Amino acid sequence: MNEIASSHGIHVNQIRQWRNRFLEQMPVIFAKENKKADQMKADYENQIENLYVEVGRLTTQLSWIKKNLESRSRAERIQMIDWDDKELPITTQAELLGLNRTSLYYKPVEPSPEEIFIKHKIDEIYTKHPYFGFRRITVVLNSNGLNINRKAVQRHMREMGIAGISPGPNLSKRNLEHRIYPYLLRNLAITCPNHVWGIDYSD
Length: 203
Prior knowledge:
Layout: H1 2-69, H2 74-79, H3 90-96, H4 101-104, H5 113-128, H6 134-143, H7 150-160
Keywords: Coiled coil
Organism: Neobacillus paridis
InterPro entries: HTH-like_dom (IPR025948)
């Protein structure tokens, strides 16, 4: 029992020594930790500031790129797409180039042989009769054995960029701003050759 009590006393004394040593060194330890925490905070704020600077720089560069891309045609911007780029998705590339992503995968349908044949016939008729509109061309096509309605002919002519030549509106209406000259021969009796001469003049 005495040995146990003696051993217990030794452990108590050691604990007291450890406690006293800790209390003595505690201010130093906490001061170091506070200094370390302050340094970490300063480093973190410095990193945040650098990130803001980098974001501002990249935003300015992106605005400059988009502004200069506006002068490029859609075909030129499509050619800039890098389909093999693994780091920059097609969606992001399309957004940066101002393109609709879904339109990149669209392939126009080629006209059918029947449509090409009809357009050739329309072109032949229009070349011979440029004053024919879609109604008269429809009549000619149907008379030649082609069963087609006028709406289809009108659509084909619109796609071909042709239209029947016709006078514009109000061509017979007098322009009130033009000067009106009197008719000097109204009551003159012309009795011999070369009695009256006429000439057209336009400025």
